[in-house]
Amino acid sequence: MRGDKTPVGILGATGVVGQRLLALLDRHPWFEPAWLAASDRSAGKAYGEAARWRLSTPLPERFARLPVSAAEPAGCPAKIVFAALDAALARELEPAFAAAGHAVISNSSALRMQADVPLVVPECNPDHLALLERQPSYARNGGFAVTNPNCSTVGLVMALAPLERAFGIESVFAVTLQAVSGAGYPGVASLDILGNAIPYIANEEEKMEVEAQKILGRLTAGGIEPADFRVSAHCNRVGVVDGHLESVSVKLKRRATQAEVAEALRGFRGRPQELELPSAPAAPVLVTEAADRPQPRLDSEAGGGMAAVVGRLRRCALLDYKFSVLSHNTLRGAAGAALLNAELLRAEGRI
Ligand SMILES: NC(=O)c1ccc[n+]([C@@H]2O[C@H](COP(=O)([O-])OP(=O)(O)OC[C@H]3O[C@@H](n4cnc5c(N)ncnc54)[C@H](OP(=O)(O)O)[C@@H]3O)[C@@H](O)[C@H]2O)c1
């Protein structure tokens, strides 16, 4: 193990999100990948042989040499396990790892809406981590599961959180233009998406509508009381590689000027900024005045891929205000989100 870094494991290490996690962990000051797992197709091979590396930065040699293990808790030496598995598989494996005493930090939808599982965006609802104490394994062996939201929910929620805090939100209407990398690898067939847009992503609209309410909900003695605003989402897949762009209209509970809305977005900060967590962007929401931004190709990497970029803030003829928000789906929407959750858990002494 490198220096005194904490060893971590990755379930689904060969996939789109698993690769992003490895790339982020390459120079991470606290964590070092020690255990990588994937399907039976990959288990037993060296990572460099099992994974079809799709990132533009080279696969670090020390990761290429790591063996790929079977996705079972037995033999996993790491307390912290990042999970980047398909939901059906995660539903079975994530509770098994938590029961065996691992801190499971999940990217899948399997456990997100479970009452005792925190669904956390560290800038928005770090207090929801207290739900961990309701998980049976937490007191027994320190095992638990924490989740981060769907990649289309995260950008939306980062833009809504400061508005909910400052003015209250009554309703939200959102239309997404989602990148193909959001579908995993190989994802959508090239003949379906090149020169095309697909106005359907299975279960995505439902996820956006309920996850935003849970994240911006209130922690009470009885669990999370969902935020009382309504969300209507339309989800579209477009021929973009990385970065989900969303057109959002929002109705506020209290009157606010456009300058006040912009100021609330710009001034938004949370626990990761306060704690100066390694993966925290200096400002979680960046507001651009440019008439034609944010754009996925130009703005997805803002704040190291961890900031949500808001632009085109203006009056809405139906609700109060409308704007565009962009977030990097595999960084802020998955690998980076999971890493920030792990950093928060560690900084708050939960692992
Ligand atoms: N892509 C995104 O932008 C994004 C954003 C947010 C959340 N997510 C969520 O993150 C999760 C992973 O997504 P992804 O895009 O990384 O998917 P992916 O590219 O399809 O990768 C899936 C991973 O799961 C492994 N796997 C498949 N079958 C397995 C089995 N039976 N046992 C153990 N491992 C198995 C694969 O290993 P092999 O290589 O051996 O097949 C691979 O490592 C999903 O729940 C997805 O919804 C993705």
Key attributes of the depicted protein:
351 residues; alpha/beta; Rossmann fold; Dihydrodipicolinate Reductase, domain 2; six-stranded parallel β-sheet; 12 helices; globular; binds NADP nicotinamide-adenine-dinucleotide phosphate
What hetero molecules are bound to the protein chains?
A: NADP nicotinamide-adenine-dinucleotide phosphate
β-strand number: 15
Placed side by side, the strands forming the largest sheet appear as 8-11-7-12-15-14-13
What's the number of domains?
2
Q: Helix-strand pattern, N to C?
A: EHEHHEEHEHEHEHEHEEEEHHEHEEH
CATH fold-level assignment of the largest domain:
Dihydrodipicolinate Reductase, domain 2
Helix content: 25-40%
CATH architecture descriptor name of the largest domain: 2-Layer Sandwich
Strand content: 15-25%
End-to-end separation in angstroms reads 18 Å
Corresponding CATH superfamily of the largest domain: Dihydrodipicolinate Reductase, domain 2
Low-confidence blocks of residues: none
Q: Helix count?
A: 12
Sketch the major β-sheet: 7 strands, mixed
Name the structural class. Answer: alpha/beta
Rg (C-alpha, Å): 19 Å
Which of globular, elongated, flat, extended, rod-shaped describes the shape?
A: globular
Describe this structure in words.
It is a single chain. The chain is α/β, with parallel strands linked by helices and 351 residues long. It folds into 2 domains: 158 residues, Rossmann fold (3-Layer(aba) Sandwich); 179 residues, Dihydrodipicolinate Reductase, domain 2 (2-Layer Sandwich), CATH 3.30.360. Helix content is 30%, strand content 24%. Strands 8-11-7-12-15-14-13 form a 7-stranded mixed beta sheet. Helix 1 links the parallel strand 1 and strand 2. The radius of gyration is 19 Å and the shape is globular. The two termini are 18 Å apart. The relative contact order is 0.15.
